[in-house]
């Protein structure tokens, strides 16, 4: 089998990520929390956890949290936050989400926020399959990401232009994957492609209808 070569794309930008992107995501993080019924013993994993901000939000409500990111630089930033937050009970691990180091049906909840849109379509599928595998039957999968919107009021257009600027700034490959994600209305069609494994429980729009927070239940 050909060995996967992992390139840390955030090596030079991880330390600046929260400064530029953090304020943009604050309300989204709160909306994701509201969409879940978290208990102390909830076993939760966050894929593409980045600098760990969302995982730390989760840790205010439950204690069994794992954050996964392929970027060691992002994981290093996340671990720094733990020290500043009195070592909250979050375990950050650098790992490839296409092949997660966990047994099937381990977690009550699996989440990913603004991660799938930047990935190659094949990788998206691999990661979604892994999320389904590691989530318990009747467990929840939460995906928050960009959606295609036809509601073109002034605020929606402005937010959309900001998002496009950010995606272009992230690089040619990143922007290409974003355009593919939007053109296929990927988030809206996930459950249609995975109807044998997932059922859609709820969906909510944010960022002036540019982002969706979709909650699925694993049915088998």
Topology:
Blueprint: H1 14-34, E1 43-47, H2 53-58, E2 64-69, H3 72-84, E3 90-94, E4 107-113, H4 121-134, E5 135-146, H5 154-169, H6 172-183, H7 186-193, E6 198-206, E7 211-218
Parallel strand pairs: 1-2, 1-4, 2-3, 4-5
Antiparallel strand pairs: 5-7, 6-7
Report on this model:
The protein has 220 residues and is α/β, with parallel strands linked by helices. It has helices at residues 14-34, 53-58, 72-84, 121-134, 154-169, 172-183, 186-193; strands spanning 43-47, 64-69, 90-94, 107-113, 135-146, 198-206, 211-218. Strands 3-2-1-4-5-7-6 form a seven-stranded mixed β-sheet, sandwiched between helices. Helix 5 (154-169) crosses helix 6 (172-183). The longest helix is centred in the first third of the chain and has 21 residues, at 14-34. The chain starts with 13 loop residues before the first helix and ends with a strand.
Structural class: alpha/beta
Beta fraction: 15-25%
How many distinct folded domains? 1
Assembly classification = single chain
N-to-C series of helices and strands: HEHEHEEHEHHHEE
Radius of gyration: 17 Å
Uncertain parts: none
What are the main properties of this structure?
Rossmann fold, 7 helices, 7-stranded mixed sheet, alpha/beta, 24% strand, 41% helix, 220 residues
Summarize the structure.
This protein has helices at 14-34, 53-58, 72-84, 121-134, 154-169, 172-183, 186-193; strands spanning 43-47, 64-69, 90-94, 107-113, 135-146, 198-206, 211-218. With 220 residues, it is an alpha/beta fold. The protein has one domain: Vaccinia Virus protein VP39 (Rossmann fold).
